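Please go through this chain and its backbone structure tokens and walk me through the local backbone shapes. Keep your notes short.
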Amino acid sequence: MTESRKPFFIGAFLLGGIALLAAALLLLSRDSLLSKPVEYVVYFTGALDGLDIGADVTYRGVKVGSVRQITLSYDRNLNDVVMPVTIRINAESGPNKNKDRGFENSIERLIERGLGAQLQTPSFLTGKAIVALDFFPEQKTYVREPHLIDLPVIPTVPSRIDQAADVLRDLVDGLKEMPLKDTLEAANKTLLAFERLASAPETQAGIQSLSRSLASLETITQELQQRLPGMMDNVHHGSVELKDALGDVRHAAQSARDALQQMDAMVSDGRRSLGPQSELQYELLQSLKNLGQASKALQRTAESLEQQPQSIIFGKKR
């Protein structure tokens, strides 16, 4: 290589490096060159741990932009410092026949429907935070009034960590308001009273008496279990004997009724003979005999019931 051509190659090498540098810059900034970003501001009242410039802005998990600026501001209404965060929503570039297709063209209507921003930490390992855009029903939103930055505002809601901290704070405040000392003293006095009551001689004697009563009750139960079948048999036998006795009484009464009917028939029949060998005399004697038997049966039943009235239930003793 001659000395005259060295400057040519050096210049060509420099031009090639510049071209490569320009291509790299164009590649890295292609999103900015191919899009028309729209910026919004969100005012956070809680801590912004893990949120840096360039952090992702997502809508239901889909990246739609990035964080451009983080500042501090004082809100007299809250009497606290708030953090205005400027976010940039990337928009599609180039001619578009339907301008409503882009997310940046729908965000205003979404804000009217309740769109809000929340600080979230997708991964606790990295600790990196993002600004998540979504709908948070029944969540109290915040917008700084008056606006500090001249940009459209997206309301914010407390992060999950801030919500948990608020719950713990309310719990601690509630515990502080409770008279814990008086409650513990009252509980200690109650436990001491129970201890004295349990160790009192009267309590021990009552427990022993209850134990003896339970033992006696168990013995009585066992005896009842042993004797109950026999008692049931006696009741059954007694009911059978009572049934038989009632049958005898019924038979005797029927016999007496038949005898009375026969006597009435004999008296009304005057054509019959009244001699000593007459049919009327024989039938009268037979009826009186049946009546006597029925009376004896009734007498025996009455004497048995008078002597052993429990036989109606338990039967006669053998």
Notes: The two ends are 149 Å apart (CA to CA). The chain has two domains: 32-159, 218-314. The beta strands are 38-44, 56-59, 62-70, 73-75, 80-89, 115-120, 130-135.
